[in-house]
């Protein structure tokens, strides 16, 4: 499925004018990505890439990413690299994808790892460059090993110089799904994890964020009581290994959850399944990343709007009006895909 198909199938899920306008804008935001090669490339202790004294904003970036350097910062980092002796040099072929939020499950699975895996397929002799703290994150460690991606760990307290380095430049430089890479990654993960799985069960799943630091449902116990009447299984994604999540969601026919990293598992669900995302009531405050992910894999996406506890932002806790939620849930359960 290419980009044109990804955009066209999205039209079936536009429920209201508000989301239609946002969705139309989101559809044209898919960036073009280009693989570029550099020689004698320098990675600073802050994970910024310099080539021939020039700062290269590699990979997907946003205004909130730490790659937005001022003129002074760029020159300071470069000059420091020239006069500080603690520079470690690497020979051979490497590739580099770095993003300020890569240690988050969604941003790793949908923005960073797909590009890593795509580069591994195109350049099998190259090794990935990973900041050493990445391997302290279980799902990063698990996926790198599962996909047999060879890597070197760099100490981000030092400058690191690479004789030959490849990276991906995105235009426009926004954190977005690379459609072909995302599809390829999904297929490979499912193939490797599910090859020995038997006794497939079709689950209806609710993802709880009770262990998250922020963005929770205040009256979640009431929500869960309603969901259990419809035989939803309540899970906490942080309590499951990566493999357990893949197996669980690959057998799921329905998923409901608050906007958050757990919904990333949409990418492992069957093509005829469905998702209800619980969001706050300000469309501009939360990205439509899970709507896009569902569309990419032809999964029916619906939404329910909760009420934020304060001025709406992407991080708000919210409350769910139980009577209206029950009505929407009944419709969600009855509607066919």
Description:
- The model is unreliable at 1-28 (pLDDT under 50).
- This protein has 337 residues and is α/β, with parallel strands linked by helices.
- Strands 3-2-1-7-4-5-6 form a seven-stranded mixed sheet. Strands 9-8-10-11-12-13 form a six-stranded mixed sheet.
- It is elongated.
- 34% of the residues lie in helices and 25% in strands.
Strands ordered across the widest β-sheet: 3-2-1-7-4-5-6
What is the mean pLDDT?
A: 82
Instruction: Tell me the fraction of residues in β-strands, as a range.
Output: 15-25%
Percent helix range: 25-40%
Uncertain ranges: 1-28
> Could you say what the CATH topology of the largest domain is called?
Rossmann fold
Radius of gyration: 21 Å
The geometry reads as: elongated
Specify the CATH class of the largest domain.
Alpha Beta
Provide the number of structural domains.
Answer: 2
How do the helices and strands follow one another from N- to C-terminus? HHEEEHEHEHEEHEHEHEEHEEH
Count helical runs.
10
Secondary-structure-based class equals: alpha/beta
Q: Biggest sheet: strands, sense, closure?
A: 7 strands, mixed
- CATH architecture tag of the largest domain: 3-Layer(aba) Sandwich
Straight-line distance between termini: 19 Å
Q: How many beta-strand runs?
A: 13
Task: Offer a few descriptive terms.
single chain; 337 residues; alpha/beta; Rossmann fold; 2 domains; 7-stranded mixed β-sheet; 6-stranded mixed β-sheet; disordered N terminus
């Amino acid at each position: 499925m290419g980009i044109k198909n990804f955009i066209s199938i999205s039209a079936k899920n536009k429920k209201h004018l508000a989301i239609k306008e946002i969705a139309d804008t989101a559809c044209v935001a898919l960036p073009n990505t280009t693989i570029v090669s550099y020689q004698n490339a320098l990675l600073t202790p802050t994970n910024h890439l310099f080539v021939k004294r020039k700062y290269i904003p590699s990979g997907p970036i946003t205004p909130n990413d730490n790659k937005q350097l001022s003129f002074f910062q760029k020159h300071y980092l470069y000059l420091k690299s020239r006069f500080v002796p603690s520079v470690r040099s690497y020979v051979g072929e490497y590739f580099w994808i770095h993003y300020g939020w890569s240690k988050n499950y969604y941003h790793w699975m949908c923005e960073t790892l797909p590009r890593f895996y795509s580069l591994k397929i195109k350049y099998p002799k190259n090794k990935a460059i990973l900041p050493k703290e990445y391997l302290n994150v279980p799902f990063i460690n698990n996926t790198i090993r599962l996909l047999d991606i060879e890597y070197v760990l760099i100490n981000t307290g030092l400058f690191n110089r690479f004789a030959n380095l490849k990276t991906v430049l995105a235009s426009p430089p926004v954190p977005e799904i690379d459609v072909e890479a995302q599809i390829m990654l999904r297929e490979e993960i499912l193939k490797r994890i599910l090859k020995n799985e038997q006794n497939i069960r079709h689950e209806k799943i609710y993802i709880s964020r009770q262990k998250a630091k922020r963005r929770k449902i205040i009256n979640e116990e009431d929500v869960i009581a309603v969901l259990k009447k419809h035989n939803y299984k309540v899970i906490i994604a942080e309590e499951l290994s990566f493999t357990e999540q893949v197996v669980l969601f690959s057998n799921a026919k329905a998923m409901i959850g608050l906007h958050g990293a757990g919904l990333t598992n949409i990418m492992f669900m069957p093509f005829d399944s469905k998702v209800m995302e619980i969001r706050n009531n300000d469309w501009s405050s939360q990205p439509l990343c899970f709507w896009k992910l569902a569309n990419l894999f032809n999964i029916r996406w619906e939404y329910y709007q909760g009420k934020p506890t304060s001025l709406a932002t992407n991080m708000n806790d919210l409350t769910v009006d139980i009577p209206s939620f029950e009505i929407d849930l009944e419709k969600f359960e009855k509607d066919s895909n």
